[in-house]
Amino acid sequence: MSNSLAIGTAALLLSAACGGLTSAPPSTVVYQADYPSYGTAGDLAQQATLIVEARFNEEPRVEMEFPSDASDITDPQLNPNAGVPEQEQLKDRTGPVVTVHRATVEKVHKGPVKPGDIIEVKEMGGTLDGVRYENADSAPIATGRSYLLFLETYPDSPASLLNPLQAKYELDADGNPASAPGNTITLTGVDLAKIIDK
């Protein structure tokens, strides 16, 4: 089981929208979660079950992900209270809001998919019922763009990034991966080929 998303430790900061006769902006909830950090691209590649270059052309869906009732599940994706001290555990049945993206695989570096396959990738955040949920750690995947992704897959749930900042690289017109601001792991296509061949 993975600890790629410690939702249970998320601190939610809610700023209420102002009422009035005019249309009010949505309230905002900022998720601050505890993710594993990786030292090198090789560490990411070793941990990932799927490494692909994929294009996101469809509008994503936003939904609430409900936690499992099973307290013995240690995967924070399924049980947000996994590994969280009892006094800090979530007591209700609401889960985090996630955006589920559908993407077309363009190139496979690791994993049991092939070019042309459609995969689903979830990220924390999105707008649901007039409330905007944001991930404090990174900008969301943008529709109409291609990315190199280091993913963890699940049998009954969309794949998730190993780390929202370190495991997502937007590809330029020539297919070169670019690190997001704040991501200290940089790599090229040549670097990735060397890592995968190890």
UniProtKB/TrEMBL annotation:
| Source superkingdom | Bacteria
The protein's UniProt keywords, in alphabetical order, are: Signal
Q: Which residues form the signal peptide?
A: 1-23
Q: This protein is called what?
A: Lipoprotein
Which species does this protein come from? Micromonospora craterilacus
